[in-house]
Design brief:
The protein is mainly α and about 475 residues long. About 75% of the residues lie in helices and about 5% in strands. It has one domain: Up-down Bundle (Growth Hormone, Chain: A), CATH 1.20.1250.20. Helix 2 runs antiparallel to helix 3 and helix 9 runs parallel beside helix 12. One of its GO terms (cellular component) is plasma membrane.
């Protein structure tokens, strides 16, 4: 049975009132943002991950944690293996592009399927196919016959699986915990992913040095099977299953129109586009720094990825304790992420570069969770799958464009220039969007030297 909401959390009902007002005014209530839980007081630490008290989500989170560790192991092993086979950072970027390109082209259809069919069954099917692909890559690697084109093909097919898996996974979180704990569950998922990202690269570095990449792929195949097992163990009667959307013409266009009319969806989309294209291909750049700049080998590559994950895990915990969910937070976190990447370009040593990666991981995760939460809680359940699929098209598809581009910059110029571009463009975009939003909302920055806790505030512009 789901626990009652914490007494410290208060939910704003202004969105509910706005829906009623829209109905009285003759406007479509579906275009009005749904209620967003706003925590007005700081939560006690025992409530930081309160969504784990829900049985189904706790079971799912355990299986997800194991799967994420194995997934990170496969990602690191795959990228390093391609780099060693080809000697080209661009080839690593092409691998990333092939894995994410299907989401760029077919992502909206994945969201439509998530709205129309049972999410649990979709996830079980996707995990089964992913297990078969990981097992194939393991066999090719362990037998010593693997070639770069093998990895390309498997990465592309895995990208097709992601088209169905990601929208269903995003919406399935709501079925596990319900609307009350949705924001917290998203933060828990992010923490799980980043904690796995802390452990997975470290294990991958050990395996790459000791026995090669093949066993990392085999471990991921077993982890996919464990995910299917956890999905079978869920209590069906406790799922918050939403009514499937009926099939009709214009479903994709309906989702796009819906999203473009909501600032809390549109602006996070826009920022996610800049971040995805330029700053989300960080593993490609880290491979270049580990191999060409610091000569740190596979172990150093795994360490840099682990440092990013360490910062991201701290960001996930901070996001779970975020008291207010605002559009300005999304823009600020994107800008800070870009700024940290720019600072890392000037790092004089690998130690300073690693410290910059911790801060980059923190702000990247703060941005991703804020944008994800704002988009999800701003979309009505009947259309949430399509909205999230379009968001993932931007977030994942952008990496398909940015991966080869960043790899090409790092290889033909230098990694320092590449990471400067990767951070500079999102930072500049964040400043531009902040100015536009401030003008639209008549806001201004106010500096109050007497208030040490809040030296800088955003306040309404004086008439």
């Amino acid at each position: 049975m789901a626990p009652p909401p914490p007494s410290e959390a208060t939910v704003s009902h202004s969105a509910i009132e706005s829906v009623s007002a829209a109905a009285r005014a003759g406007r479509d209530p579906d275009t009005v943002t749904q209620p967003i839980a706003v925590v007005s007081e700081r939560l006690p630490w025992r409530h930081t991950f309160i969504s784990l008290r829900v049985h189904n989500f706790r079971v799912f989170a355990i299986g997800h944690f194991v799967a994420v560790i194995a997934l990170w192991m496969q990602r690191i092993a795959q990228d390093w293996m391609v780099l060693q086979l080809s000697g080209s950072v661009t080839a690593v970027g092409i691998t990333v592009a092939l894995q994410f390109m299907p989401s760029l082209v077919l992502g909206p259809w994945g969201g439509m399927i998530a709205d129309r069919f049972a999410k649990r069954r979709i996830l079980m099917l996707c995990q089964g196919v992913a297990a078969a692909l990981a097992a194939s890559l393991a066999v090719l690697s362990l037998t010593g016959v693997v070639q770069v084109w093998h990895v390309y093909v498997i990465a592309f097919i895995l990208g097709l699986v992601t088209v169905l898996d990601q929208p269903a996974r995003q919406v399935f979180v709501n079925e596990l915990v319900g609307p009350t704990y949705l924001r917290n569950a998203i933060s828990v998922n992010s923490t799980t992913f980043q904690l796995g990202g802390l452990i997975g690269p470290a294990l991958a570095g050990v395996l790459l040095n000791a026995v090669g990449p093949g066993w990392a792929f085999a471990g991921n195949a077993l982890a996919c099977c464990s995910t299917i097992t956890t999905l079978l163990l869920l209590r069906k009667n406790e799922l918050h299953v939403s009514k499937p959307a009926p099939r009709r013409k214009g479903m994709l266009a309906e989702g796009l129109r819906y999203a473009l009319r909501k600032p809390t969806i549109y602006w996070p989309w826009l920022m996610a586009g800049f971040v995805a294209v330029f700053a989300m291909s960080l593993p490609v750049l880290l491979a270049a720094f580990a191999d060409h700049v610091y000569d740190a080998g596979a172990g150093g590559y795994g360490l840099l990825n682990a440092l990013v994950a360490l910062g991201a895990m701290c960001g996930a915990i901070a996001s779970a304790r975020r008291r207010q969910l605002r559009l300005r937070s999304v823009v600020l976190c994107a800008g800070m992420y870009g700024l940290m990447l720019c600072l890392s370009a000037a790092a004089p040593s690998m130690a300073w570069f690693g410290a910059a990666m911790v801060l980059s991981g923190f702000w990247c995760l703060m941005f991703l969770t804020a944008a994800n939460q704002l988009v999800q809680t701003s979309a009505n359940m009947a259309i949430r799958g399509r909205v999230m699929s379009l968001y993932l098209v931007v977030l994942i598809g952008g990496q398909a464009i940015g991966g080869p581009m960043m790899g090409w910059l790092a290889e033909h110029f230098n990694p320092h220039l590449a990471i400067l571009v990767a951070g500079g463009v999102p930072a500049l975009a964040a400043v531009t969007v902040a100015v536009v939003l401030a003008r639209k909302s008549a806001l201004q920055l106010r500096v109050d030297l007497k208030n040490r806790r809040r030296l800088v505030r955003i306040v309404p512009r004086a008439a």
